């Protein structure tokens, strides 16, 4: 995951090399988009491994045999993915600051707050969809196909907006977006909590 | 009456209604007005009364990566600065934006004196002597001078009041009246796609509750038809938009983008179904995805982030109270909606029957012991 975030940021560094040096794109505007592309893909990769390994090693069966509510497994999976993906978020922000020589300054906390809430929403919906896609042929391809439309409006657009506003120091505006993202975290959390049972049974 | 005969009758009726819709749309429904007037005309009619339009206060949406728009937050443009209702050439005012056209979207309207304002966004009436100030946003780089956009208009229907329509759409003013005919097919298709996805949502929930394969078939069939009808809506929309807006698609328009996302969600749903071989698993996981998928899009529309964007330039049929449909057009669209709904029901019944036959066939294959 360390390597993943490093490579993603490097890809952006090379890809936008000309654009940044010629000032066609400001780093402030690039940062929000680039970071959230990193975060989203990190989540997709992370979510995939969360269930694929379990399925391949047939440890999912064991997990399901545990005498606990299956919704607890959902929350556990979401939590572990969250820790992992948020770690990647932090690393990506660090690498971004390093490679683009960009100083987040006092706004770093705002950016991290958006990353925190956004990633939470991302893993809550991602865990459910990953549990769905693990049943499927060509599951590596299926996860993004199923997940990206769901997160386009609920995570990516508001998060990019909130991050950009946070970088520009407009925390009030950023907070408004953050509220709606948190709302989706609740909605996805509830749906996941209720529906996870149906996905893993059998 | 047995089921098949009923289905047959519905099929015939829907076919007749679709033909009737085509006829009405072509020959009965009137063309919308092309009441696009110049700013001068508006100004002269306004000046004749006691209404004073203060102007547009432009707040500028920051556009990353584009030439910096430095129209300050409080710049006041008078109505005369508008070349047509909604678009203006900033260059003609300040000269520091280059030769670009920008769409101005009213975000707020306040009456400083003289009377109440019915609604901040959609049209209404203000009393004589009122000072109306309209706050507008420079929203996006626009599309050039040739296509007029339904939008800000001022007219004086009688001597007592001034009605205004703040970009609400409707069919009061359209620059491409003939292209509007496609609306009679576009709007019912869009409506049917929402209906179909809703059927999928309900059937999915019912399946998870009852585990009856019947509901799974309904969910699948409805999703397939929903994708079909939303494809029609997504394809017919741009044909009109090219004529009216000058572009096929606008990424800034919430209605367009959410419809597209909904379409992607259900394409994903169908792909998911296609790639699970076990029928029980397929029904379960697709039911869950059908529920999550439907929930996201309407929720997105309601979320705070999107709400300001909701005033898209896509015409609102139901919400608009000014410049609405003429009775003839209303009748045509009414019949069109009934026709498409009947068509949808017919196709849904048939599709479910096909799904039943397919399952029967699978069952027979298994009994015989052949390969899958």
Short description:
The complex is a heterodimer of chains A (202) and B (372). Chain A is mostly helical and 202 residues long.
- In whole angstroms, the N-to-C terminal distance of chain B is 38 Å
Radius of gyration of chain A: 18 Å
The count of strands of chain A amounts to 0
Spans of chain B of at least 5 consecutive residues whose pLDDT stays below 50 are 34-174, 307-311, 318-323
Give your account of this protein's structure.
The complex is a heterodimer of chains A (202) and B (372). Chain A is 85% helix and 0% strand. Chain A has one domain (2-200). Chain A is an all-alpha fold and 202 residues long. Chain A has helices at 2-15, 17-21, 27-56, 59-65, 70-99, 108-133, 139-167, 171-200. Chain A contains eight helices and no strands. The longest helix of chain A has 30 residues, at 27-56. Chain B is of the alpha+beta class. Chain B folds into two domains: 3-27 and 176-368, no CATH class; 39-165, no CATH class. In chain B, 49% of the residues lie in helices and 14% in strands. Chain B has seven helices and eight strands; from the N terminus they run ααββββββββααααα. Chain B has helices at 3-28, 39-48, 183-210, 213-244, 254-274, 279-302, 327-368; strands at 52-60, 75-77, 87-89, 101-113, 124-127, 131-141, 153-155, 161-165. In chain B, the strands form two sheets. In chain B, strands 2-1-6-4-3 form a five-stranded mixed beta sheet, with no helix packed on it. In chain B, strands 5-8-7 form a three-stranded antiparallel beta sheet, covered by helices on one side. In chain B, a hairpin with a 5-residue loop joins strand 7 and strand 8. In chain B, helix 1 packs antiparallel against helix 7 (327-368). Chain B is globular, with a radius of gyration of 25 Å. The interface between A and B is large, with 41 and 34 residues.
């Amino acid at each position: 995951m360390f390597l993943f975030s490093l490579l993603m940021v490097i890809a952006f560094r090379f890809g936008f090399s000309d654009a940044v040096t010629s000032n066609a794109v400001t780093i402030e505007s690039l940062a929000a988009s680039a970071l959230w592309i990193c975060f989203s893909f990190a989540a997709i990769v992370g979510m995939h491994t969360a269930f694929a390994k379990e399925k391949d090693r047939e440890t999912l069966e064991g997990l399901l045999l545990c005498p606990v509510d299956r919704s607890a497994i959902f929350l556990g999976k979401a939590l572990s993915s969250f820790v992992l993906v948020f770690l990647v978020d932090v690393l990506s922000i660090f690498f971004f600051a390093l490679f683009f020589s960009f100083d987040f300054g006092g706004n770093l906390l705002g950016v991290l707050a958006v990353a925190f809430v956004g990633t939470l929403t991302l893993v809550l919906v991602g865990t459910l969809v990953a549990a769905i896609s693990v049943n499927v042929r060509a599951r590596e391809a299926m996860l993004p196909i199923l997940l990206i439309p769901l997160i386009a409006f609920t995570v990516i657009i508001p998060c990019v907006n909130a991050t950009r506003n946070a970088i520009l120091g407009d925390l009030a505006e950023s907070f408004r977006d953050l509220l709606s993202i948190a709302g989706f975290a609740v909605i996805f959390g509830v749906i996941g909590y209720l529906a996870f049972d149906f996905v893993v049974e059998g | 009456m047995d089921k098949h005969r009923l289905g047959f009758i519905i099929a015939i009726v829907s076919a007749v209604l679709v033909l009737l819709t085509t006829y009405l749309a072509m020959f009965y429904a009137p063309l919308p007005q092309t009441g696009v007037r110049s700013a001068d005309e508006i100004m002269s009619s306004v000046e004749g009364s006691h209404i004073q339009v203060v102007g547009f206060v432009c707040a500028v949406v920051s556009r990353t990566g584009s030439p910096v728009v430095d129209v300050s937050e409080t710049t006041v443009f008078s109505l005369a600065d508008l070349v047509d209702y909604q678009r203006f050439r900033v260059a003609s005012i300040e000269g520091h934006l280059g030769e670009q056209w920008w769409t101005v979207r009213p975000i707020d309207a306040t009456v400083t004196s003289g009377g109440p304002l019915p609604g901040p966004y959609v049209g209404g009436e203000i009393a004589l002597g009122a000072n109306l100030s309209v706050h507008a946003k420079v929203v996006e780089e626009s599309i050039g001078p040739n296509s007029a956009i339904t939008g800000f208009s001022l007219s004086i229907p009688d001597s007592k009041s001034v009605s205004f329509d703040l970009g609400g759409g409707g069919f009061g003013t359209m620059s491409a009246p003939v292209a509007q005919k496609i609306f009679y097919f576009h709007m019912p298709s869009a409506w049917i796609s929402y209906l179909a996805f809703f059927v999928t949502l309900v059937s999915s929930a019912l399946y998870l509750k009852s585990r009856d394969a019947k509901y799974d078939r309904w969910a699948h069939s409805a999703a397939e038809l929903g994708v079909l009808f939303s494809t029609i809506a997504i394809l017919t929309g741009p044909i009109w938009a090219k004529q009216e807006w000058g572009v096929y698609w606008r990424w800034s328009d919430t209605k367009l983008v959410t419809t597209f996302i909904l379409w992607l969600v259900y394409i994903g749903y169908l792909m998911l179904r296609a790639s699970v071989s076990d029928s029980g698993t397929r029904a379960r996981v697709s039911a869950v995805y059908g529920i999550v998928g439907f929930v996201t899009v309407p929720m997105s529309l309601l979320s705070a982030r999107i709400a300001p964007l909701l005033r898209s330039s896509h015409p609102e049929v139901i919400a608009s109270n000014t410049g609405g449909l003429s009775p003839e057009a209303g009748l045509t669209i009414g019949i069109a909606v009934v026709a498409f709904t009947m068509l949808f029901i017919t196709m849904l019944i048939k599709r479910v029957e096909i799904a039943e036959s397919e399952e029967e066939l699978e069952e027979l294959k298994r009994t015989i012991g052949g390969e899958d």
